[in-house]
Write a structure and sequence with these properties.
It is a single chain. By secondary structure, this protein is α/β, with parallel strands linked by helices. The protein has two domains: 293 residues, ABC transporter type 1, transmembrane domain (ABC transporter transmembrane region fold), CATH 1.20.1560.10; 222 residues, Rossmann fold. The chain has 21 helices and ten strands. It has a six-stranded mixed β-sheet with strand order 6-7-8-3-9-10, with helices on both faces. Helix 3 runs antiparallel to helix 4. Bound molecules: adenosine-5'-triphosphate. The site of adenosine-5'-triphosphate has 11 residues, from helix 12.
């Protein structure tokens, strides 16, 4: 459980905060007694004896201020560290889970940013809540020691206060959960809109999209108002109940003074202790923070429910590249049996939606099939060690994401750094070297200042795959944005490369250059044969459309 882990990892600072809060509460509790004693001595004309007590009052006040300041610093540091720890923990899981996440990307961003900060307050607010109980309880005990009749008055009002607190916790929990949920929904819509900015601009109605993104805003506002209502109502109720209790204590203490059972200093102390015993504002504040922190933690816990990918420790035999799929069912794939011979260039073709990308994903373990097995050189992919798997299988995609900081870093991005010479050779093979060298800083150009065309980005993605040669290279529609001449050059470089190539092909020309073609239809393998042989079939030619003349 994330809640328990968070509290455990912050146990040190939490304990320190608890001790500091208790010390501060102790100083606050000692002050009324010292004040009462000073007053009694002054009223009795024993000024010299009153001196040390007055000094004690000053020391206690200064101590409480210093401890409070130190506690604030420790609290801020502990919360920041806790937030960093939570983010690392949840982000680690998100990256381990890969493509199967528990919520949308926008929700993930909202949870890892705002929710993580709120969840990070849990350890310090637990310490704070415990400490916030110390002052009222201590005040009550001190009140009983000063005059137990006055303590009885406070005790009589406590059940009502406990009821107020219970109602507050329930209301605050429900409204903050609703608030965070709606906030996540808006974040999701916003992220989607940022990604689709070009489509929105082309559609020409940004106002309508702004309205759509902000549509949950009234709901968010409603939840926010409900949160403030709950807090306001509880504060107002406490503001009526608690001063009434203090007044009642003062009245009883006054009667006790009149009967000679309590000194004037005792009355002053009883009044101050009644204020401390009923001073539960800090407690309500802490309970509020704790409730919101727990709600945020529950949302992060949800993220952790996405199953993370586990790896074995097996290694591959020394050579090969044979890929086998047996009875693979995954999304659109409905029982794929396929053997891709080691060293072969195999094109996967099929109509849109036939399951080509799904096949590419399970072939290199970007996803685990719902059933069936995928093995490389006879070793099931899940039993391979992570490093072994990623060394053996390379990928290039239709829309590569440029990670790695610079253009050169993007090509080098992978489990192992291939070195500068290999990066440049890979860029040449992917027909990327020429346009990279025209950039202001060449290979050192930051990706953020290198606006790339779709084809240029694809060539960087291909170069990245070439720079990390393994025994299986999977190209998922990775050349679709290249012009035919560039695609031909890249294909020739591919043919000269070693290992098995699984190429999702949309063009007949790509299929024609492959040793074998796997023809998918509605999630099943319809045929496995060389392109020229399949070209005799009208249904196969129809996959590429009449205009494609490579058949
Ligand atoms: N794991 C999955 N679970 C459920 N559905 C899936 C899964 N993976 C893909 N699909 C769905 O299966 C269909 C085919 O997906 P896929 O991307 O594999 O087709 P494709 O042949 O590559 O299509 P295209 O050529 O248009 O890219 C799509 O509707 C997709 O949403």
């Amino acid at each position: 459980m994330l809640l328990r882990e968070t509290v455990r990892q912050s146990a040190g600072p939490g304990t320190l905060i608890l001790l500091l809060s208790c010390a501060s509460a102790g100083a606050g509790l000692a002050l009324p007694a010292a004040l009462g004693r000073s007053l009694d001595l002054v009223l009795a004309g024993r000024q010299s004896e009153a001196g040390p007590w007055i000094t004690l009052c000053v020391v206690l006040t200064v101590l409480a201020v210093l401890i409070g300041a130190y506690e604030s610093a420790v609290t801020a540091t502990a919360t920041a560290r806790s937030a960093a720890w939570i983010r690392r923990r949840v982000l680690g899981h998100v990256l381990d889970a890969g493509t199967q996440q528990a919520c949308s990307e926008g929700e993930l961003v909202a949870r890892l940013t705002g929710n993580a900060v709120q969840a990070a307050t849990v350890p310090v607010s637990i310490a704070g809540t415990l400490a916030a109980v110390v002052t009222p309880v201590g005040g009550l005990v001190a009140l009983a020691l000063t005059d137990w009749w006055t303590a009885l008055v406070v005790l009589a009002g406590m059940p009502l206060f406990a009821l107020l607190l219970k109602v507050f916790v329930r209301g605050s929990g429900a409204s903050s959960a609703g608030y965070l949920h709606t906030q996540g929904e808006i974040a999701g819509r916003l992220l989607e809109a940022v990604r689709g900015a070009r489509t929105i601009a082309a559609a020409g109605h940004p106002e309508r999209d702004a309205e759509r993104i902000l549509a949950p805003l009234p709901e968010l506002s409603g939840q926010g108002h409900r949160m403030w209502e709950v807090l306001g109502r509880s504060t107002a109720q406490a503001a009526i109940l608690l001063p009434l209790l203090q007044l009642a204590v003062l009245a009883v203490a006054g009667l006790r003074v009149a009967h000679g059972d309590l000194s004037v200093g005792g009355l002053l102390a009883a009044w101050r202790y009644a204020a401390l015993a009923t001073g539960t504002g800090a407690l309500v504040g802490m309970v509020n923070t704790l409730t919101r922190g727990r709600t945020a933690t529950a949302r992060l816990q949800d993220v952790l429910t996405a199953p993370s990918v586990t790896y074995g420790s097996s290694e591959l035999p020394s050579a090969g590249g044979e890929l086998t799929l047996r009875g693979v069912v995954h999304g659109p794939l409905r029982g794929i049996d396929l053997t891709v011979p080691g060293g072969a260039v195999v094109a996967v073709v099929g109509r849109s939606g036939s399951g080509k990308s799904a096949l590419a994903a399970v072939a290199g373990r970007l996803a685990d099939p719902e059933s069936g097995t995928v093995a490389l050189d006879g070793v099931p992919l899940p039993s391979l060690a992570r490093a072994e798997l990623r060394r053996a299988v390379g990928y290039a995609f239709a829309r590569p994401v440029l990670l790695g900081g610079t253009v050169g870093g993007t090509i080098a991005y992978g489990a192992e750094d291939p070195g500068e010479a290999a990066v440049r050779a890979a860029a040449r093979a992917a027909c990327a070297d020429d346009f990279i060298r025209t950039m202001p800083e060449g290979y050192a150009t930051p990706c953020a200042s290198a606006p790339l065309s779709g084809g240029e980005a694809q060539r960087l993605g291909l170069a990245r795959a070439f720079a990390h040669p393994g025994r299986l290279l999977i190209l998922d529609d990775a050349t679709s944005s290249l012009d035919s001449a560039t695609e031909l050059k890249v294909s020739q470089a591919l043919l000269h490369g070693s290992g098995t190539h699984l190429i999702i092909a949309l063009r007949a020309s790509t299929a024609a250059r492959a040793d074998l073609v796997v023809w998918l239809e509605e999630g099943r393998v319809r045929a496995v044969a060389p392109h020229q042989r399949l070209c005799r079939l009208a249904a196969y030619r129809a996959v590429f459309g009449e205009a494609d003349a490579s058949c």
